[in-house]
From TrEMBL:
Transmembrane segments: none annotated. SUPFAM superfamilies: CheY-like. The keyword Phosphoprotein applies. This is Response regulator. The modification 4-aspartylphosphate is found at residue 258. It comes from Billgrantia tianxiuensis. It comes from the Bacteria. One of its GO terms (biological process) is phosphorelay signal transduction system. Keywords: Phosphoprotein. It holds the Pfam family Response_reg. Residues 209-329 form the Response regulatory domain.
Amino acid sequence: MERLERLHDGMVELQGRLELVPSLDGLLMASLRPVLLLYRGRIVGANLAMEQLLGESQEQLEGQDPAARLIATEAAGNRPAEVQVLDGEGRWRHLQVEWLDAAPYQLLIFERASAQELGDLLAARERAREDSRLKSRYLTLLQRELEPLLSELTEEMRGGDDRIAPQRHAHLRERIADLMLLMSSLAGEQKGEALRKMRLPSRQAGPLRVLVVDDGPVNRMLASQVLETQGLRVDSVASGAEALELQQRHAYDMVLMDIFMPGMDGVEAARHWREQEAQRPEISRSILVALTANATEKDRRRFHDVGMDDYLAKPYAPRELVELLQRWRPDAFEEAPAQ
């Protein structure tokens, strides 16, 4: 009996010690650095930071060959110290990796390869390149919009049906306002007052408040000017962290959230936005709209999973943004009451 009691006590002590040992999944998920777990050269585990970096869930990554997403750019002994990683936005990013072997398992722990200052410079350079690419796309969009407009103007000058002239004039006037907005945004000019005068007089914007979250200055300027010309209150920030700070001070009817941003991306920011929103039930639920150049079915599912309501593909015309707002908040565009 004494031996059984000692054996029982030993088993209880052993069980208590085992309960203190954290699970592998728990260790991976607790890391803020991206982590991949390989078994015989195949992915069998990933933490949340890695899922966000690669843009896929752990279930989707399991069984994949990491060589399809990782390219070694520098070797240290038999293991790479620096790699290029294909992220969820289709961009190759330089990261440093610590490669730990425990055959047949391998653990890859990633971090930025460069110092913080160099990382900031690289991020600024990438943002400048993206800004340049967006300007080029907007110019292409501007050219595409101008060609049919010039044809309509030519036809109008040659004469037409006088009965539909007022409607045609209003339509042409509205399209010219959109083009002016595109041109002023590309030039970095503020022409809000002139554009407000070109709004259709039959519309009355409601007191909605919109937040534009985008690290690209061209996109922030374009969206802000479009919405301000509709009489809306607009705030704009360049990062997800700044957006979450503003959420604590203001209630927003709609949030336009860029997906690819340095640091906290739009998906993570949207997840935190909904979490903070749940803590303030007295505040109405914001409409979250993803701004992205990539809008595949997988992307749309990812946006939906974190609580985003819609998306707008870049580059977008001013009319597309207004139509998005009309679709979600038609009450902001009700007919003005008679005076």
